Amino acid sequence: MDFNVKRFAADAGTFLTRAVQFTEEKFGQAEKTELDAHLENLLGRAECTKHWTERIMKQTEVLLQPNPNVRIEEFFYEKLEKKVPTRVNNHELLGQSMIDSGNEFGPGTAYGNALIKCGETEKQIGGAEREFIQSSAINFLTPFRNFLEGDFKTILKERKLLANKRLDLDAAKTRLKKARMADARAVAEQDLRMTQSEFDRQAEITRLLLEGISSTHAHHLRCLNDFVEAQTTYYAQCYQYMVDLQKQLGSFPSSFASNNNQSSVSGGASVLVPTLPLSSSLPAGRSSSAFNELRSCSGSRKARVLYDYDAAGSSELSLLADEVIMVSSVPGMDPDWLMGERGNQKGKVPITYLELLN
Fold first, then answer.
1. Measured distance CA(277)–CA(297) in Å, rounded
2. Angstrom distance (rounded) from CA 179 to CA 189
3. Residue 259: CB partners within 8 Å, gap ≥ 6?
4. d(Cα 330, Cα 347) in Å, to the nearest integer?
5. Among 82, 170, 176, 198, which one has the highest count of C-beta atoms within 10 angstroms of its own C-beta?
6. Phi, psi of 17 (to 5 degrees)
7. CA 143, CA 136: separation in Å to the nearest integer?
């Protein structure tokens, strides 16, 4: 019990000494030992790393889960160390609605069949999105969070110890200046040597930890590469799913006048009408042979734009639905693209947005 009381008294005395030293420094009544420039730079770099790691983490979480309420719920599950319940995402919900409606209208009808195909594609995109989110959480967010909750907390702890050791050192310097008697000066000098040694040792520990930030940056760079790779895979999957769907829908007849199972005739009688075949070929202007023929010759042809397209760069040409442009093939160009011209404007255009005209 006496030991605990003595320890408490010693801790209280140390705290009071540091508080007095800190207050006098703030009022300019005591000198302050400055850290060397290299250590100060390392401390600033660590704070900068912490700040931007938090910002990137927050915005990535918003990207992966835009709903703030769901993010809060997932945060609580994580803190309680419970498994987050699996949720159906928006693509999967839309896909299921399309499939259900397609089955209701009839898989044998063009519209019903198209809805089912669209629904299946939306569910595929939903699955790809789920894999992207999971991969990003494991390979990108988790390492960032581990740094903030692990390495940086250790840095904060050692930096606080360094600040305390610095206060102890300056308090010892102040006591030595105030000492008048030889015995008092001898004690103050010994105290100063001890506090200087402890300060130097703590500064070295802190410096070594702060220099590890370079390793953190290297690790986060690898995580960033993993995140970009996951995004690339996700968007490539989505693009391929939609291209495949577009090809499937392109095989549907352009007229849906006879899509219904029943059609009214004169006199009010209803008769069954066979559904149109769903395996007819693409229109001539959209068939692969038409584009292959264009690539094999050095000429150009008119093409009608099927959908609006926003150019992704200066090398591409933006398009408006239903406008007519001139297109030609350039040797070495990606087979999914052609060179488009509209007046004085020129740039690459995707063939999936075009229909060649005779």
1. 34
2. 10
3. 109, 110, 111, 275, 276
4. 11
5. 170
6. -60, -45
7. 10
In this prediction, residue 27 has a pLDDT band, given cuts at 50, 70 and 90, of low
Per-residue pLDDT at 96: 96
Q: How far apart are CA 318 and CA 340, in angstroms?
A: 10
Q: What is the 3-state secondary structure (H, E, C) of the chain?
A: CHHHHHHHHHHHHHHHHHHHHHHHHHCCCCCCCCCCHHHHHHHHHHHHHHHHHHHHHHHHHHHHCCCHHHHHHHHHHHHCCCCCCCCCCHHHHHHHHHHHHHHHHCCCCHHHHHHHHHHHHHHHHHHHHHHHHHHHHHHHHHHHHHHHHHHHHHHHHHHHHHHHHHHHHHHHHHHHHHCCCHHHHHHHHHHHHHHHHHHHHHHHHHHHHHHCHHHHHHHHHHHHHHHHHHHHHHHHHHHHHHHHHHHHHHCCCCCCCCCCCEEECHHHCEEECCCCCCCCCCCHHHCHHHHHHHHHCCCEEEEEECCCECCCCCCECCECCCCEEEEECCCCCCCCEEEEEECCEEEEEEHHHEEECC
Positive or negative: CA dihedral 177, 179, 184, 186: positive
Mean pLDDT score, 132-147: 94
Retrieve residue 190's tokens. 């010994």
- The reported pTM is 0.60
For residue 306, pLDDT over 80 is answered with yes
Phi and psi (nearest 5°) for 45?
-65, -40
Quote the pLDDT of residue 8.
Answer: 56
Q: What is the token pair recorded at 57?
A: 């983490």
Amino acid at 243: V
Question: What's the rounded Cα separation, in Å, for the pair 126 and 59?
Answer: 21
